[in-house]
Amino acid sequence: MSYQLEFRHIKYFLAVAEDLHFRKAAERLFISQPGLSRQIKQMEDDLGIQLFIRNNRKVTLTSAGSYLQREFTQHLTNIDNSLKYAKLLQDGKLGELRFGYVGSAMQRIIPDILVRFKEILSDVKFGFKEMDNQKQIEHLLSQEIDIGFVRLDRVPRGIAITPILKEPFCLVLPKEHAINESNYKNLLQLKDESFILFDPSYSPSYYEKVLQIFDESGFAPIVSHNTIHAASIYKLVENGFGLSIVPKSLQQGYDSNVKFIELTEISQRTTLSIVWNKKNRNPILHLLINEIAVESFINNE
């Protein structure tokens, strides 16, 4: 079976599928609305597939249309990535590597990786986006990023995950707080204090692990604030709005008037992992992953 499907048909279809409005899509494409309608009708006739349900009030995608929207979007993303890679090759670059990461990964792990492999990455263009765990998974599946640094225990099928750092937690207090390393015994000393924690949406599994720390310490925390940024946590702690618990690696990289006490008495550890889409064909991604000696990054403190 042969289809006379051209790139412009796909472009027109995706515009209507996104807007669900022929006039708006036509304006965005700089063509007339009747012309766009004819092109979509021709595409449907050529394929023998109804893509849209039309009536006077609204336009909706059929189930087949929704499927093709997802497939065409992914294929166009792959084409776009290939064209970008070709342009980088022409410009003397080996390629591009796009990172997603939670904030703690940028304090030491990502810089360490880049320094360690700077020779093989010297001609690579980098992109960096700080985002929560779920956003990274979404961006990996759509191949908007190549590699992520997450605090997750499970990932969807199609995503590979490898732990690179296992670390303890630290208690965060204002510098003038009466509790310090010399008189700290356990968290129960602080059961009447308020706590500022990373928002559960940032990583539900990480949030649950922190709550386990309180459970095993024998009390439920008074949670006064949730946020997704370490800098915000430290600023709130510094100004007396509560205490916090963070991964040890987040002691670095912030100029804040707070102090840290490592929670050596608890069993919980938090794991930072690298994740990537198994279908991602970026050669730089696989070069980097193959070069990383994972064992050398893991910290079993």
TrEMBL record:
Domain (HTH lysR-type): residue spans on this chain: 5-62
Protein's organism: Tenacibaculum jejuense
PANTHER family named among the record's database cross-references: HCA OPERON TRANSCRIPTIONAL ACTIVATOR HCAR (PTHR30346:SF0), TRANSCRIPTIONAL DUAL REGULATOR HCAR-RELATED (PTHR30346)
Gene Ontology molecular-function annotations: DNA binding; DNA-binding transcription factor activity
Family: Belongs to the LysR transcriptional regulatory family.
Matching Pfam families: HTH_1, LysR_substrate
Keywords, comma-separated and alphabetical: DNA-binding, Transcription, Transcription regulation
Gene3D superfamilies registered for this protein in UniProt: Periplasmic binding protein-like II, Winged helix-like DNA-binding domain superfamily/Winged helix DNA-binding domain
Taxonomy, superkingdom: Bacteria
GO cellular component: protein-DNA complex
Family annotation (SUPFAM superfamilies): Periplasmic binding protein-like II, Winged helix' DNA-binding domain
Record InterPro entries: LysR_HTH_N, LysR_subst-bd, WH-like_DNA-bd_sf, WH_DNA-bd_sf
Name of protein: Transcriptional regulator, LysR family
